[in-house]
Amino acid sequence: MEKPIFIAAALAVAVGSSAVAAAAAVPDTVAVETPVYYVPTAVAMPVMVDSTDVSAKSFDAGSLLRSMPRLDAMAPVVDAPARDASKAEVGALSFRLENRSFGKVRLTVEGADRYLLTVDGRKTAAGEELQLSPATHRVELAWLRVPGDTAGVPKVGYVTATPERFSVRNDGKRMYTLEDVLSGRRVRSVSVAPSGQYLLSRYEEARPDGTVERYSLLSGPKGFVRGRRERADVAWMPVTDRYYYTAEGTTGRELRAVDAASGEESILATGLPQGYFTIAPDERTLIFYVAEEGHKENPDVYRISEPEDRQPGWRTRHQLAAYDLATGIMRPLTFGHTAAQLLDISGDSRELLVRLSRSRLEKRPTTVSTIAILNLDDMSLDTIVADDGFIGTAIFSPDASQVAITGSPEALGGIGNCVPQGRVPSMVDNQLYVYSRGDRSFRAMTRDFDPSVESVEWSRADGKVYFTAENRDMKSLYRMDPKSGRIAMIALPEEMIGSFSVPAKGAMAAFTGHGAQNPDRLYRLDLRKDAASLLDEPMAERLADVELGEFHPWSFVNSRGDSIHGRYYLPPSFDPSRKYPMIVNYYGGCSPTGRDFESRYPHNAYTQLGYVVYVLNPSGAAGFGQEFSSRHVNTAGQGVAEDIIEGTKKFCGEHPWVDSSKIGCIGASYGGFMTQYLQTVTDIFAAAISHAGISDHTSYWGEGYWGYSYSEVSMGGSYPWTRKDLYVDQSPLFRADKIHTPLLFLHGDKDVNVPVGESIQMFTALKLLGRPTAFVAVKDQDHHILDYDKRRRWQDTIFAWFARWLQDDPEWWDTLYPAVPGE
Which intervals hold domain Peptidase S9 prolyl oligopeptidase catalytic (predicted)? Predict the structure, then answer.
């Protein structure tokens, strides 16, 4: 439930010099007939020790407004309460002013000389022009009456040139807005104690001023323990129910542990070396990452040894070292210029699973890895996989007799590959393999399993393998029997499983998850019954009064006979007899656009503005099987665009409430490329937005930090000098003359993934062609717009562009970006 944030002590008093004219006497003034009133609060006049204060100012009775309580601490009443003229008292009222499109408005106050007026917690004055983004705004008015005042209860209203955009909302509901996306309390991850009796859940609380607090909460069998916030960086010890963290003490860096049951804290080590470490299961050994910096070039004139050398810190290499807590001795475990990464530690702490990675630019893939087992007793290295560029991560089985490895279909010589002959598999369609140390054999466990594997845990409690996987546009949790290879999905109450954790003992796991219509929740999971129980829903109170529209899955069969899955969102109070503009969202690259409640493009926030939102996962996305995901490779968006166009047309044909003349489209990164490319092959869109989009595959290939390496995924085995048909002919820049759709380019000016020049050159082309376009750069932002205030402005820019072209309402855009001379 939304709580008023009217804290008078923190706000200055706005004193009206004269009452604003009555609403009825001003044209286009709308009187607020049914505000919520509150029982007046009596205030005491101070004892006048002197006639003036230290600044020689006389007492201002209006300052008493600062001592009033919060509105949520005052009792609401239906009608305006009677006035006690013998007392000094503060009265208050509030109402919700809603606008579903950008608008300008002035509030009016009649019958109050001493008052405090706020909109969404921000002080304003009657008559001041407010530029309000679409939202349900909370307007609060407090006024002071002193003995002798004769005026009654004030009247409030608003004046606007566009009264059709504003209304007073009295049903107790409100719009879902960008503020709900950016601020609030959320659970981000969860980890279970070794015994399964306790769990640590990590939270993030974002405030409206953009500050973020991160912390952890401890839970036990009976709920949250001790009612205090723990540090965000705490983690469980491997065997005992203690959580640890590091802190600076009087003798240097300390390793501290807290007993989950008693809360007793102990110091495990002092004078600890700096750096990241993992605690071994013996709880006596720490495996450290030791950073070794490479040769530093002259900062003004410097050599780049290879493409990756442009990245900060690339020359730094990490090696592994073992630190003994009892003696404080740290011994090196690996040495060389090849980077070493710790993947797992055996249960007896005697063996490490490590990955050694190196570059090999002359052949795809250009980075290869070796996975090996390092025996800490004799320092021998047993190689499991050598120089394989398609493997991901790996973990030991509980007894370390087997190793679970993730990788693409091409990993391990292609034993998990089932795409048609002549087709290149997608490198991001993750498979699961199991290696047996006894006979040194590999098994492809998910070759005929369509979802794309993500996080993997091998349970010490029941010996099963648990993993999450992209399951079409959802993310599901699965259990695999490593002996039989049987895989079963665990039915859970959320569509998108986030973090999950299984215990070393017992059957009580935990997970976080969300869905298309709800934010993250925290659950316990009984693995014996596969029964989930809700522990926390941190955004429930904040969103209790939010009104969301309906959500429905929708798929179609394309002209090639393929089922293309998607979904759509409807505006609140949807009326099928009306015509609605529609926004089409996609990625179009190698990953599916999942059912995330909060994302780069929060779909429920768009529906609040009167749009239908259609989201689809065209050919090439992982999570639909290897054959489907392989369509992303060496097509440069061709089949993807066909699916998006066909799906949009079929959706409009089946849903007459869509205004087919007012359809917009939006995508980012590869989806930004897709937005640009679509406009070269179709005219069905009335507006388009490309965020951080690729306009020229050749320039992106060479300039982006990950340009050539991502091209190993999207253009597997193809290069600009071998496939002009892909790199040039499919690049929007070389097809710019075909674009007539109004196209907005958005880009962080510090983007190192897709350099900002990708938008600049395409924008330049369209300006030279005289086509409707705009380019908005976001200062000091990378591929994602993360700064709180800049994210708001960026999102408002998107809303304003669509309002201009899909709702024939340029006011918001013109307010944000007034025309410049000569434009």
Answer: 606-808
Instruction: Specify which residues 143 forms β-bridges with.
Output: 91, 115
Give the residue carrying structure tokens 């009976």: 222
pTM above 0.85, yes or no: yes
- pLDDT tens digits, one per residue of 599-637: 999 999 999 999 999 999 999 999 999 999 999 999 999
What number is the average pLDDT over the span 397-410?
Answer: 98
The two tokens of residue 750 are 């510090």
What does 692-723 look like in DSSP terms, one character per residue?
S--S-HHHHHHHSTTHHHHHHHHTTT--TTT-
Measured distance CA(540)–CA(161) in Å, rounded: 37
Per DSSP, the three-state class of 92 is strand
Express each pLDDT in 526-561 by its tens digit. 999 999 999 999 999 999 999 999 999 999 999 999
Q: How many CB atoms lie within 10 A of CB 246?
A: 16
Q: Which CA distances in Å does 225 have to 186, 214, 690, 758?
A: 18, 18, 47, 52
Side-chain-side CA neighbours of 651 within 13 Å: the count stands at 31
Instruction: Give the pLDDT confidence of 236-269 residue by residue, as tens digits.
Output: 999 999 999 999 999 899 999 999 999 999 999 9
Count other Cβ atoms within 10 Å, centred on residue 301: 6
Per-residue pLDDT reduced to its tens digit, 784-816 = 999 999 999 999 999 999 999 999 999 999 999
In a domain, 473, yes or no: no
DSSP 532-575: EEEEE-TTTTTTTTB----EEEEEEE-TTS-EEEEEEE--TT--
pLDDT of residue 372: 98
Q: C-alpha distances in angstroms, 111 versus 23, 115, 126, 187, 275?
A: 11, 10, 12, 47, 65
Residue 233, domain member (yes or no): no
485 backbone dihedrals φ, ψ, rounded to 5°: 85, 0
DSSP string of 263-293, one letter each residue: --EEEEESSPPSS-EEE-TTSSEEEEEEEE-
CATH (domain of 122): 2.60.120
Q: What is the largest CA-CA distance in the chain?
A: 97
For the chain, what is the total number of helices (H) and then of strands (E)?
11, 48
Domain residues for 812? 551-816
- Phi-psi region at 232: left, alpha or beta (left = phi > 0; alpha = psi -120 to 50): alpha
Residue where the block lists tokens 């290897």: 626
Q: Which residue has the tokens 């609140």?
A: 572
How confident is the model at residue 82, as a pLDDT?
A: 77
Q: What angle do CA 605, 99, 162 make, to 5 degrees?
A: 140
Helix, strand, coil % over all residues of the chain, rounded to 5: 15, 35, 45
Report how far residue 574's alpha carbon sits from residue 608's, in angstroms, rounded to the nearest whole number: 10
Give the up-direction half-sphere exposure of residue 118: CA atoms within 13 A in the CB hemisphere. Answer: 24
Domain boundary among 174, 200, 219: 174
Domain harbouring 751, CATH code: 3.40.50.1820
Q: Is residue 636 part of a domain?
A: yes
- 211 domain-assigned: no
Question: Into how many domains does the chain fold?
Answer: 2
Q: Which residues pair with 259 in a beta bridge?
A: 242
Helix (H, G, I), strand (E, B) or coil at 78: coil
Q: Residue 11: its pLDDT value, please?
A: 28
Of 12-16, 627-631, 712-716, 784-788, where does mean pLDDT reach its minimum? 12-16
Rounded to 10°, the helix 670-681/638-654 angle is 70
Residue 364's pLDDT band (boundaries 50, 70, 90)? very high
Place of tokens 């010890």: 237
Which residues have a Cβ under 8 Å from the Cβ of 305 and sit 6 or more positions away?
A: none
718/424 Cα distance (integer angstroms): 11
The helix/strand/coil state of 629 is: helix
Q: State which of 174, 208, 230 marks the end of a domain.
A: 174
